[in-house]
Each structure stands twice: as C-alpha cells, then as structure tokens.
Amino acid sequence: MRQTWRWFGPDDPVALDHARQAGAGGIVTALHHLNQGGAWPAEEVARRKREIEAAGLVWDVVESINVAEDIKTRTGAWKERIEDYKGSIRAVARAGVRIICYNFMAITDWTRTDLAWKLPGGGYALRFDAADFAAYDLFVLKRRGAEADHAPGMVKRAEARFREMSEGDVGKLEAVLIDWLPAREVVYGRDGFRRMLDVYAGISREELRENLIAFLREITPVAEEEGALLCIHPDDPSFPIFGLPRVMSEAEDVRAVLAAVPERACGLTLCTGAFGSNPKNDLVAMAKEFARKIHFVHLRNVTREPDGSFYEADHLGGDVDMVGVVAALMEEEARRRAEGREDHELPMRPDHGHLLIDDIGKTVNPGYSCIGRLKGLAELRGVMAAVAAARAGRIS
Ligand code: DNO
User: Fold this and answer.
1) Does residue 120 lie within any of the structural domains?
2) Quick one: which atom of ligand 1 is closest to the CA of 352?
3) Looking at the domain assignment, is residue 84 inside a domain?
4) Which of 29, 85, 103, 127 is the pocket-test mutation for ligand 1 (most atoms within 8 Å of CB)?
5) Is 301 left (phi over 0), alpha (psi -120 to 50) or beta?
6) How far apart are CA 359 and CA 209, in angstroms?
C-alpha cells in the first residue's frame, strides 16, 4: 500500500519533513484556507503542490474538498456551489492530484467529546463518550426532540453527568462538539448550530441520500473526464447524532450509493475507525465487498463500549481486525496489478494517533500529533510486510 500522511498545510505544527522521517511517501492535504465554497484556483493548487514536492514528497490525495451545506440540503446557492465543486475537481486533477476525499455529514465533520482521554498505559486518546454527548445535547444545547433520541437510562445518566459539570467543563465540551476540530471547515456557535439543526429538521435520511446521489451524478462525469477518483468518507461516528440524518454509516449505505452511481470514479474512502464505531460494521467484510471501489484508506482502530461510547485504540488494538483489513486490501491490490491497472497501489494513511511522549503539552492538531501517527504507521507497515511475506509464500 502507498504510505501517506495527512498534512494540514503550512500552519501544521507537524512539518512535511516529519512526514518524510516517518517514512511516508505521499501527502494528503487540502487548501483548507479556501474551503468555504468557491472553486480552488489553479495557481493556489500549483503553489501547494510545489511546496510538497520541494520537501521530496508527492501530493497523492486531496482530503477534503468541502461539500457546502447548501449542496447537502439543496437549498440556497447549491447550484453555484456544485459548479464551484466541479471547478475544484478540475483544478486538482489537472495538477495531477487525482484522488479526492470528501464527506456528506450534515453540519458536523467528525465528532468527539474528549480530545485528551488518558489511556490505561499512559498517553492520551480521542474519545466519544455517549453520556457526555447526551448531557450536551439534552441539557446545554436543549435540542428540540432530543429526549426521543436517547434511551431513558441514558437521559438519567446524562442528567447526573450534567449536574457534575462546571461551567468550564461545559465550555470545553461544547468547543469540542460543535466548535472546532481539525478539518472542520465551518464552525458554528450554539445559536448558529441550532439554526442549522432547524434547516435539517425537514430533511429525512432518504432525502439526504437523494441529495448525495444527485450531487454525485453531477460531479462524477467531471471526475471521469479528468481522470479523477472521488471517494466518500463515512460518517464519524457512524451512527446518528443530534437527530441529524446520516447516509454513510453502514454497508447498506455504501451499497445504495455505489449502485446509484456505478462509475468507477465514484468510490469509497474505507475509514476503519469511523465505520468501526458502529458494531454492525464488519470491516473485513466491507473491505472485501467494496474492494473495487475503494480509492483511499484510513487505518485506525476503536474500542467500543456497550452504551455507544468509544475511544481510539492502538492501530492494531481495538475492535477492528486490522490485519484482516490490510490483508483484504492487499488482495485487491494484487487483483488490480494482475489487470494491469495504474491505480493498483492503494493510498493509506495512519489515521490519527495517540498523544505520546514529547508531543504531550505541545500545540498539535488533535489526533494529528507526530509521534502517535509515526507509531501507527510503523505498526501498519509491519503488518503490510508480514502480509506481503505470507502472500509470497515466504512464511505460512
Ligand atoms: C478526521 C478525518 C475527517 C475526514 C473528513 C473527510 O480526522 O478523518 O475530518 O477528513 O471527514 O471528508
């Protein structure tokens, strides 16, 4: 697999040179400063590409070109935003960056409740705590209809949790939940978030799925023309939050979208961590079923708890059978090689990492510190080497 590394651009405290030292050959990035809707200008794309190449790396994947809420809801300036999106696809593809990751999560991008959860062995992980989440949803945001979305036992636990929280705790939780996380391109205050919830109140899961398919039917031909591959990232977490419709959480969602838009350019980012947050998802089975349409891979593990909480485990720990997933993906690579396909090497990145050792106390993008990802990549590289040896018959 092609080993890549996410870099948030010139402001990222983890530099391109660090990615190289970690052993990555490719970079995954976006023009984050231009991700509010307008088409990315070719000159800006070229400048970013030069910067990456000057560090001896290759810009392999765009993650993400942000999908505007107007496109998801098909309201406001959605037609214009789709034209912008096509413009950005053309700009990156013509610069030779042909894999484009995006997501279709309503309002939020990825969501956690705790960015520094102490691991039993030391170090810190990102965590989604169902009781903290419910406490915020029910008693801080006071979302209309929220009670119906939480089990009665959880409402009680959440109330007790909320009573224990100081104002500072609430502020911290809110900042993590709705305000900021790396790669969230648009952030809302509490009122803005509530207004967005109202916009989505009238949109069912079926409608959101139709809007996704309609969007893909417009942009996929452009990607095909330009030789680009689109790959949707799953909902993270892969279950409903804030009563919002979710359309990319389970195998059935992937099946529906890939069947509606069967062109090769319309594919999937297999994110083992995001899909892994939902116990219904068997990641090895999904890697096999969707193999032909997987254009990009995020390898990360989660440990799930019975109430819906989860934390980000070691890359080879947790509930996802990581060795099984890597083996399935390498099987697909072999199949593509045999077909003589150019895209036979699947780009993967170690998704997130624990906050460890010298990184503790440093300013880092949560989940994207250097040492934790370096460790994750090293472990995954070991798995790839072992799977390759087994495939070659050198070990049994
Ligand atoms: C979180 C990331 C997500 C992802 C986007 C893809 O760490 O995996 O922000 O980049 O959802 O569009």
Assistant:
1) no
2) 7
3) yes
4) 103
5) beta
6) 40
Q: pTM score, two decimals?
A: 0.97
What is the spatial distance between Cα 107 and Cα 144, in angstroms, rounded to a whole number? 17
Cα 224 to ligand 1 centre (Å): 23
Ligand 1 atom with least separation from CA of 109: 11
| Mean pLDDT, residues 42-52 taken together | 98
Q: Considering the domain boundaries, does residue 89 fall inside one? A: yes
Is the C-beta atom of 102 inside 6 A of ligand 1?
Answer: yes
Residue 69, pLDDT > 90, answer yes
CA gap 348, 300 in Å, rounded: 10
Chain centroid, CA 274 distance in Å: 7
* 183 close to ligand 1 (CB < 6 Angstrom): yes
CA 176 to ligand 1 centroid distance, Å? 15
pLDDT tens-digit series, residues 335-362: 999 999 988 999 999 999 999 999 999 9
pLDDT for 184 beyond 90: no
- Can you read off the two tokens belonging to residue 206? 């079926």
Catalytic positions = 233, 271, 298, 351-352, 368
* Residue 136 CB less than 6 A away from ligand 1: no
Mean pLDDT of all residues in the chain?
A: 97
Confidence (pLDDT) at 343: 85
Helices (H), 294-369: 322-338
Residue 192 predicted with pLDDT over 90: yes
Domain range for 134: 126-194
pLDDT, tens digit, 9 for 90 and up, residues 226-280: 999 999 999 999 999 999 999 999 999 999 999 999 999 999 999 999 999 999 9
Query: Which atom of ligand 1 approaches the CA of 298 most closely?
Result: 8
Please check whether residues 328 and 254 belong to one and the same domain.
yes
Do residues 51 and 97 both lie within one domain?
A: yes
Which stretch of 2-11, 108-117, 178-187 has the lowest confidence by average pLDDT? 178-187
Query: What's the CA-to-centroid distance between 269 and ligand 1, angstroms?
Result: 10
| Pocket flag, ligand 1, residue 135 (CB < 6 Å) | no
Domain final residue, candidates 165, 194, 223: 194
Strand ranges, E, within the chain: 2-6, 26-29, 58-63, 99-103, 114-118, 124-128, 229-233, 266-271, 294-299, 301-304, 310-313, 347-350
Does 48 have pLDDT greater than 90?
A: yes
Residue 117 lies in a domain: no
